Amino acid sequence: MREKPEFKAYEHPAGGWGSIKAVAINVVREGAPLSTAQALLRQNKPDGFACVSCAWAKPAEPHTAEFCETGAKATAWELTDKRVQEDFLAAHPLATLRGWSDHELEGIGRLTTPLRYDADSDRYVPVGWDEAFAAIGTELRALREEDPKSVVFYASGRASLETSYLYQLLARLYGNNNLPDSSNMCHESTSVALPKTIGVPVGTVSLDDFARTDAIFFFGQNVGVSSPRMLHQLQEARQRNVPIVTFNPLKEAGLVHFANPQSPRDMLTPAETAITTQYLQVKNGGDLGAITGLCKWLVEADDAAQAGGAPRVLDAAFIAEHTHGFEAFADFVRAAAWADIERESGLTRAALEQAAATYARASTAMAIYGMGLTQHRKGVQNVQMVSNLLLLRGNIGKPGAGICPVRGHSNVQGQRTVGITEKPELAPLDQLAALYGFEPPRDKGRDTVATCEGVLDGSVRAFVGLGGNFLRAAPDTDRLEAAWPRLRLTVHVTTRLNRSHMLPGQVAYVLPCLGRIEIDQQAGGAQTVSVEDSTGFFHASDGVATPADPNLRSETAIVAAIALASLPPNPRVPWAAWMGDYARVRDAIEATWPEVFAGFNQRFRTPGGMPKPNAARERRWNTESGKAQFIVPDGLVANPDTPEHGADVLRLMTLRSDDQFNTTIYALDDRFRGVYGTRKVLLLNAADIARLGLAEGALVRAETAVDDGHRRAVGGLRVTPYDIPPGCAGGYFPECNPLVPLAHHAEGSHVPASKAIPIRLHLEA
Ligand SMILES: Nc1nc2c(c(=O)[nH]1)N[C@H]1C(S)=C(S)[C@@H](COP(=O)(O)OP(=O)(O)OC[C@H]3O[C@@H](n4cnc5c(=O)[nH]c(N)nc54)[C@H](O)[C@@H]3O)O[C@H]1N2
Ligand SMILES: Nc1nc2c(c(=O)[nH]1)N[C@H]1C(S)=C(S)[C@@H](COP(=O)(O)OP(=O)(O)OC[C@H]3O[C@@H](n4cnc5c(=O)[nH]c(N)nc54)[C@H](O)[C@@H]3O)O[C@H]1N2
Ligand SMILES: [Mo]
Is residue 605 within 8 Å of 50, Cβ to Cβ? Predict the structure, then answer.
């Protein structure tokens, strides 16, 4: 696909005819239109499969078409007619394929046979499954003898609860807690922040709350692209006149207005729903300042109300009965100066006061957020500020209220629930020990950042990847790629080829698997798997499509086979029986967490999902103090190593387009932002373009403004004027990942701070 840059503003609502056209183009481009169309009708349905795109909740009473543009593209991508052919592999050494883009590599099609890297010819060659497992087993057994901690087991957030449970058990039987996952680059800031404030690592909002809320606050989440099915709930809320207040540096189309492609009225008339009622274009990294402003207004209005004998602005009864640390927090916001709040947030006091007043008028409010909060140096504190805001008016644990982190991958939250974590204190090690008769490792494992560090310093010797595209998704791409081939062993379980497979270890295997949409036949018949959605409901998922190739194996079967090949025999761990009947894996999951998964096999087909217990929803607080806790942030600065703009340093946020799912690039367009035919752009404020002596369309090289002895640069970026706050810049993930220093990550959670990278621009000749 050649770059053909074109720019034209997008003036239509999200959804609408544009969305139908986009789905149709994708389905045709990928081939297999018939099977895709049939599959789409069973997407997110009780007798069908859980969408392989995002993790948004699946209603008990689904719409006829319970899928969105993004989800339809993901389905078409999985059910493509294209296959990686043997003669293709024979004709292309990896040295050539390394010059291919992400889009081109995945565009070759689905893999159908296990591959071994042959260093002599620099090619992948097809091998049989038995040969692959035997060779992987030999390598893993040898490494285990030397040092079981030298191997990492990465998981991208898509694999089912069943596969993920087996995968974490494999790592622990192997002898480590090295279970980095995509969540480490994503909502880990949430998982670290919320246990300290409300005592649970997940959100408290469920679908029912949308029908009862009085106000919605959005922070750094691009609903129209990242979780479009939520637009239905938002549209319904807007029809009840519920205000929606949005904090986002960019005017994102889906947050501005929406036409429901499933409503004849919306499609045949110019009807569209205005989504956001007050749009605040906060500077990226400015949310700590902005939310401090909201809280300051609320606390001071409450002080005044108390002094004047007027009704309270805060929920004093809730604060007294249910919270800890209010006074210290109130003192912090009272002391914050409006000048500092305005400077850090880039918003005016008047705008923040208006938003605070909207919040104060609502008897119930919810806050929804995404990567705009979590991917900052103070990403954990960003999330805690949202929680502080909600606690001020008792907006946790009552209908219509709550906190709503919107998870990315379709089972990323569930993977953590079944033990994928590097943190031993979060894993049920005692239960695993009792159930399987072994002594699990008790020390902390490697997360994503520690895995990268280990690859760089040589202490990581092998990488096993259950899905994903680690080398593209992780920070500091160039440094990581240089070190990667030193690994002794790389094993990737995957559906397609991607960049991570192009840098094989000394011994390297690529194992092709079934996707979740495909029918999974095992000894015990067609298998069902399960996932957890963003709101904490478990869903059954049945394959509906014929597998891309009869030679493919399921992820569950592959993980079990790797375990059988590389671990000493243990009659208490029934890998083969699990492989043949996933209901037995669900029994094992229930035995490991009886309170969470009681009656799993009987209840997991509940329409709308089987709820996961959530103490905060019931105002039971599993925190240190036994109460919900206010947390005072260090200050208003979310990115201490990103200097204030004005000088030549800009703050770069890396973005997703509507034509990608993470590193899977469907096409080079971002129609909602008016960018077509290219991803090599830098969105800049017109005043910054002038100030820096640049011109529209000029090609620049971005260099990271961090002085740690490593030069990081991405060239060929086209200067593109955009409605973005001064001092901020926008570029695409993953193209800009070489600019993210590994050390530039969130305190506490280690999430790469990829929404605020300090950069300088240099004009290219
Ligand atoms: N179509 C599609 N859907 C997806 C994905 C995809 O790639 N494509 N990825 C999936 C995954 S894994 C995830 S985690 C989610 C991610 O979905 P989101 O959480 O929506 O993440 P992003 O799209 O990276 O960025 C979200 C928004 O943050 C804004 N932003 C950037 N910096 C700041 C800031 O400092 N403050 C505020 N308030 N806003 C800011 C950006 O303008 C952008 O609109 O989506 C999932 N769904
Ligand atoms: N700069 C920057 N970096 C980021 C982000 C950002 O916003 N900015 N976002 C971060 C976030 S939120 C996330 S979640 C990570 C994503 O990191 P990952 O989860 O590692 O990456 P993905 O791009 O989702 O993985 C895509 C690959 O998964 C494989 N795949 C697809 N379907 C299946 C399947 O069913 N089974 C298996 N086994 N494999 C499959 C395909 O080979 C495909 O190439 O990236 C992070 N990196
Ligand atoms: Mo994510």
Answer: no
| Dihedral of alpha carbons 743, 744, 749, 751, sign | negative
37, HSE (Cβ side, Cα atoms, 13 Å): 8
Residue 436: exposed, middle, or buried by beta-carbon count in 10 A (0-12, 13-18, 19+)?
A: middle
pLDDT of residue 270: 60
On whether the CB atoms of residues 535 and 611 are closer than 8 A, the answer is no
HEC secondary structure over 174-220: HCCCCCCEHHHHCCHHHHHHHHHHCCCCCCCCCHHHHCCCCEEEEEC
Low-confidence ranges of the chain (pLDDT < 50): none
- For residue 626, the tally of other CB atoms under 10 A from its CB is 12
Cis-peptide into 180, omega within 30 deg: no
Partners of 115 in beta bridges: 126, 510
Kindly give the distance from the C-alpha atom of residue 473 to the centroid of ligand 3, in angstroms, as a whole number.
10
Is 371 touching ligand 2 by the criterion CB < 6 Å?
yes
Helix axes 429-436, 582-592, angle to 10 degrees: 120
Q: Looking at domain 650-763, which of 2.40.40.20, 1.20.1250.20, 3.40.50.2020, 3.40.250.10 is its CATH number?
A: 2.40.40.20
pLDDT digits (tens, 9 = 90+) for 384-404: 999 999 999 999 999 999 999
Spacing, Cα 476 to ligand 1 middle (Å):
20
Q: CA 41, CA 24: separation in Å to the nearest integer? A: 15
DSSP state of 150: G
User: Helix, strand or coil for residue 133?
Assistant: helix
CB 163 near ligand 2, within 6 Å: no
pLDDT of residue 36: 81
Atom of ligand 1 nearest to the CA of 662: 7
Tokens found for residue 150:
């030298």
Report the alpha-carbon distance of residue 500 to residue 477 in Å, rounded. 11
Distance from C-alpha of 527 to C-alpha of 553, rounded to nearest angstrom: 12
What residue ranges line ligand 1, CB within 6 angstroms? 54, 70, 186, 219-222, 225-226, 247-250, 252, 282, 284-285, 287, 370-372, 406, 408-409, 653, 655-656, 658, 660-662, 755
pLDDT, residue 304, reads 98
Nearest CA to ligand 2 atom 38: 467
Of ligand 1's listed atoms, the one at least distance from the Cα of 638 is 35
Assign domain 88-174+411-612 one CATH number from 3.40.50.740, 3.60.15.10, 3.30.565.10, 3.30.70.1170.
3.40.50.740
> Is residue 409 classed as helix, strand or coil in its secondary structure?
strand
The boundaries of every CATH 3.40.50.740 domain in the chain are: 88-174+411-612
Cα(371) to centroid(ligand 3), Å? 8
